[in-house]
Specification:
elongated; 4-stranded antiparallel beta sheet; Immunoglobulin-like
Length: about 130
């Protein structure tokens, strides 16, 4: 069985609603390395990068799949911790999914959570579409 390698790249600049309109968070997500585990499973890994351009530190930064992606990325809560203004952190996570889902181009919605400099919790939804 041959599993093709693919890369899915998402790069968005998102205006954070509770902050000034010039402040942003940049999220980049890529998925690569589909490798056979068994006749019906492949192992993949995800690399996610969050850059804080908000003008101040953000804390408790997490990124997780929302909706149907939760099925194959069980436990994929990517922890970035605190990010200073201008700071970037990259987190990697491995998971397994069914062979027939590998070439599925269904958009994934990601949920980005963090606490801004005033302590207010922020939640953003980001789609690969």
């Amino acid at each position: 069985m041959r599993i093709s390698k693919f890369t899915h790249l998402l790069m968005l600049a998102i205006a954070v609603p509770a902050l000034a309109s010039s402040e942003h968070v940049i999220v980049t997500v890529s998925t690569t390395d589909a490798a056979p585990v068994s006749d019906n499973l492949v192992a993949e890994s995800i690399s996610a990068e969050v850059t804080n351009l908000s003008g101040s530190e953000i804390k408790n930064v997490t990124l997780r799949p929302d909706g149907t992606a939760q099925v194959f990325m069980t436990g994929a809560v990517l922890q970035f911790g605190a990010l200073a203004d201008g700071g970037t952190n990259t987190v990697r996570h491995s998971y397994q999914r069914l062979v027939e889902e590998v070439d599925d181009q269904t958009p994934i919605t990601w949920r980005l959570d963090f606490d801004d400099s005033s302590g207010q919790h922020q939640r953003l939804f980001i789609s690969t579409e």
